[in-house]
């Protein structure tokens, strides 16, 4: 090696080291940006904080935002770039390190608001972002769109379910939309879903409506308002008041985009309702969209206390009008044998399966029957709630199951009432008592004992001397002697297994990886294959987030629903809800999933979604490595908890 070449290599190394040192001393900078400086109250928009000079900044204190905005994290990640240039044989390598924070904001009130300067810190250094001025507009009425809230009752009692109906009237096509309903977080009410309709489920006019962290199933149908024809999206929730008082519900809004009026339509309203079709805007120029926000009214509800006078024993919260029907089987039993009692409650809609009034506290029933203290939850079916309980008659004088009492409060009459079932005829026979004589075989009903007949020859070994015994040789190989010499017996018995083993080994040689890889079909094994090192290396930085997101959905779909395809559009909220339901049923290894694992999974989802939809920083291999490592950690913790 010549001195000139060696000197050039040393100079290049020194240049690289010096450029890396400069990169480490790069000044800390931060800038904040929003999607739009003009938004509506309740409209969600993205705030991105771009940090330069480090890819490991400290967490941002977002508390200054919370007075005027609702804030949720939307992921983030490193945003590094490297460039190498060679000029006249001199190589320069520049590394720019950065990090992007993403947040989803929604303004709480109208007016001229400001996103304040936020402090960004890293390694003892700090810098502030510049404040951002926003104009927040109140929702505005529009002749083409109307939002209406209505209640099934204007007056109700504490615990009485009231149906809230949300109706969105549309005269034009709608694209992206977002509902803001502060009522869903109102602690004065319990908010639950109404019972399933039972017919028409899965029809093409059904739409799943996202309401923040909640969902509702809506239906579209033609409708009319103030003499004008609209398409109406309608969904319902049940409100259960928790306290008394005159309550005015908070206003709801829906923010959406819609093609500006006067533009030609290529499809019918129902064909591109909520989304514009899969190829909207792909071929040719798409329509010009405008963003709108529509307010609702604010219906009022008067909530009354339940009266204490006249409250029947066993009342446990049923409010409405109800009927009770009962049936039992079998009708012919012995004392102590089980009788299955089936109860059916019909009447007013209830929010969820309320507990049946305690049967073990009804004297007419417990006098003649043993009644377990616990009863299973009711099942909603055919517009009624069905309960099942097991009874056992105490004595043979029982001739019927007495009427079952079902106390409830009638809000129309303002008083308590008791629904009763019809008595059920029953035939009970006495049970036969087993006595000590029966146990010894001396009772009158004992079977006749048979005498053992004597035998002249008797039992052989009792009457034959030792000469009748045949001497046989023992030992480990005694059982082989009928096959001939020991070596021949061993050969005959051992040859077939040896031959089979040789054939099996030959057939599997060179195929073990394929065979055993194919057999590993558990959801966790498929997840490991999907994000294995060899697979990850083939991803480009731009497609890593989409690939990890797809693999997560496939894993949780297979793990929680048995089908990977069922989770193609799942969000983190879908997975969290299904995990909570799984652990509430007692599945898993006996311990609930820890909050850190859920937080890590949520962070992975947000980073993937931010990178895919909001430019959240999937720009180098280091970002991809951290994303895959965190995803693997979250999946492994959840898999261990579910076993």
Textual characterization of the structure:
- With 643 residues, this protein is α+β, with helices and mostly antiparallel strands.
- Helix content is 24%, strand content 32%.
- The strands form eleven sheets. Strands 12, 14, 16, 17, 18 and 19 form a six-stranded antiparallel beta sheet that branches.
- Helix 7 (523-530) runs antiparallel to helix 9 (541-561) and helix 9 runs parallel beside helix 12 (621-642).
- The chain is flat, with a radius of gyration of 38 Å.
- Residues 9-24, 268-273, 275-284, 434-468 and 510-520 have low confidence and may be disordered.
Estimated structural class: alpha+beta
Shape assignment: flat
Give the low-pLDDT segments. Answer: 9-24, 268-273, 275-284, 434-468, 510-520
Q: What's the tally of helices?
A: 12
Main sheet overview: 6 strands, antiparallel
Rg is 38 Å
First-last Cα distance: 62 Å
- Measured as a percent range, the helix fraction is 10-25%
Beta content comes to 25-35%
Task: Count all strands and give the number.
Answer: 34
Overall pLDDT? 78
How would you name the oligomeric state of the polypeptide chains in this document?
Answer: single chain
What's the arrangement of secondary structure elements?
Blueprint: H1 3-24, E1 29-34, E2 38-40, E3 44-52, E4 69-78, E5 81-87, E6 90-96, E7 98-107, E8 111-115, E9 119-122, E10 125-128, E11 132-137, E12 145-151, E13 155-157, E14 162-170, E15 177-180, E16 189-192, E17 206-211, E18 214-225, E19 228-241, E20 245-248, E21 253-259, E22 289-295, E23 300-304, E24 322-329, E25 332-334, E26 338-347, H2 363-366, E27 369-370, E28 379-381, E29 384-393, E30 400-401, E31 405-410, E32 415-420, E33 424-425, E34 427-429, H3 436-440, H4 460-463, H5 486-508, H6 512-519, H7 523-530, H8 533-538, H9 541-561, H10 572-584, H11 595-613, H12 621-642
Parallel strand pairs: 2-11, 13-23, 25-34
Antiparallel strand pairs: 1-3, 3-7, 4-7, 5-6, 8-11, 9-10, 12-14, 14-19, 15-21, 16-19, 17-18, 18-19, 20-23, 21-22, 24-26, 26-29, 27-29, 28-29, 30-33, 31-32
Helix pairs in contact: 7-9, 9-11, 9-12, 11-12
